[in-house]
Amino acid sequence: MDRNLKFVIKHYRDGMFEINKSRADLNARIGKVNAGASPSYRARRWVLSMSMCAAIALFAVISVYYVRLNSWSEYTASDETVRYVLPDSSVVVLAPGSELRLQKRKNIRHMEMSGKIFFNVAHDSAHPFTISVSRGLPVTVLGTRFQVDQSDSLTRVDVLDGKVSFGRMALTKGMSASYRPGTGLQEMTSGDVLNPMAWATGSFVYEESSLDDVIKDLESFYHVRINVSESVDGKRLTGTFPTADMASVLEIIGMACDVRLTI
Predict the structure, then answer these.
(1) H/E stretch holding 238
(2) Which of 38, 116, 123, 213 could make a disulfide contact with 95, Cβ separation 3.0–4.6 Å?
(3) What is the spatial distance between Cα 150 and Cα 179, in angstroms, rounded to a whole number?
(4) pTM to 2 decimal places
């Protein structure tokens, strides 16, 4: 038999290892020490204890605040267009490969993004809707519909309606602007792209647009080459058309402008 085990068997007595009794003895000894301590010593211990408690409470509050300050909700679109409704009832539509991060702070509508996103912002004049884009250049709105298309080399903002502040530039309905490192912020012509947000809104909108520009717009959207049966010089188009059925769109526009459009 092991020597240590023999020692325990020889010297063990009932009640020798009672935990409750040992704790009580320890507390009694601590009480005697405190009872014999001077009042100033006990006061210092009390102040020290309260200071430690206050420090712990302050650390906890700061930690919670820091976590909330740096807490974000993430919205992504991988292989297809995705629509989300944000906590403030604003609607965002993300193109494939896009990401949106919304800061979780009460009464703060701030976000960061990459890719191409269409925004339909719920109006709230007291709490502007801000987006950080290229190199911290801000996009700020109160309530409007617009799009931000961001890449490593270019950031473009298109406004469908309302008013958008892009850096120091104010954009209103139908206006567009771009920012490129090295060239800065530039306003773009309205005829550059007639319906840059059609992928998100699901419709083409034309107001006295030349048929030549309309055809270029359709070719860009559907990624096709459109053939025209005759000259389109002088022909203009006004109307709204759904994007879902290309064949129907070409047929209706062709009939309205008295031409035949084919691919």
Answers:
(1) strand 236-242
(2) 116
(3) 9
(4) 0.68
